């Protein structure tokens, strides 16, 4: 990933050496690269959470302090890494502003497509609810045609009885 960024700039190049790409100058630190430090600090965070020393330890405050230190180091290295990539992004925007505009246009197109799909989904739901309301309205109209009142049910039931049975 770092190599693909370094190739974007005319004044920097990455040269393959022994199967690995060289790291851009800004990404190197005294302890290696920021990515290596980020990975190591993440592994240290994970190791501190599953370490037998912490599992068997009785001093909860000591455990908490150790975990907090690991997490803080991870966050610090993550901020440094983010800063590096933000600096590279700024360099790109200065050297190739058309690239940034192309990316913005692409992001806007994707957002429009997502919103169009969302609108279509809501329209479909709206049509379904309109159909439900229309069905309820039709049922309500049918129920208003039926006589209302305490004897309405009996009147309706007696209307359905054949005349031959009524005479008996």
TrEMBL record:
* Any one annotated GO CC term: mediator complex
**What highest taxon heads this organism's lineage?**
Eukaryota
Alphabetically sorted, this entry's keywords are: Activator, Coiled coil, Nucleus, Transcription, Transcription regulation
Residue segments, region Disordered: 1-32
User: Compositional bias (Polar residues) spans?
Assistant: 7-16
Coiled-coil positions = 98-125
- What is one Pfam family matched by this protein? Med28
Subcellular location, record wording: Nucleus
Family, as annotated: Belongs to the Mediator complex subunit 28 family.
Listed name of the protein: Mediator of RNA polymerase II transcription subunit 28
- Source organism per entry reads Geotrypetes seraphini (Gaboon caecilian)
The top of its lineage is: Eukaryota, Metazoa, Chordata, Craniata, Vertebrata
């Amino acid at each position: 990933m770092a190599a693909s960024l370094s190739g974007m700039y005319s004044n920097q190049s990455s040269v393959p050496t022994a199967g690995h790409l060289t790291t851009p100058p800004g990404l190197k630190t005294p302890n290696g690269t920021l990515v290596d430090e980020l990975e190591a600090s993440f592994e240290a965070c994970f190791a501190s959470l599953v370490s037998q020393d912490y599992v068997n330890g009785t001093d909860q405050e000591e455990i908490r302090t150790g975990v907090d230190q690991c997490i803080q180091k991870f966050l610090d290295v993550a901020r440094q890494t983010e800063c590096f990539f933000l600096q590279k992004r700024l360099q790109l925007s200065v050297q190739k502003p058309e690239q940034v505009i192309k990316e913005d246009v692409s992001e806007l197109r994707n957002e429009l497509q997502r919103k169009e799909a969302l609108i279509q989904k809501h329209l479909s739901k709206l049509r379904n609810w309109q159909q439900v309301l229309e069905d309820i309205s039709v049922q309500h109209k049918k129920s208003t045609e039926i006589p209302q009142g305490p004897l309405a049910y009996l009147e309706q039931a007696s209307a359905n009885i054949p005349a031959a049975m009524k005479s008996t």
